[in-house]
Amino acid sequence: MKKIIALASAVILISGCNRKFNSDTVNGNSTDITPTPAKINVTLKRMASPATANFTSIVVDVVCPKALPGGNDWSEKDVNINASSSTFQIVSGFACNVSLKSYKDTSGIIYTVKSSPLVINIDASGLAPITEAISYIKTLPDNSVDPSPWYFAAASPTPFGIILNYGTDPTSVTNALANSNTSMIPTNVIQAGPGAAAPIATPFNLEKTQRNDGKADYSLLGTVSGAKKCQIFPAASVPDFSYNTVNNLMNASTGTDCPANMLSGNQGNWNSFNNAGNQVIIWGNKEDDKEYLGYIYLTILAQTPLAP
Question: Where does the source fall among the domains of life (predicted)?
Answer without folding.
Answer: Bacteria
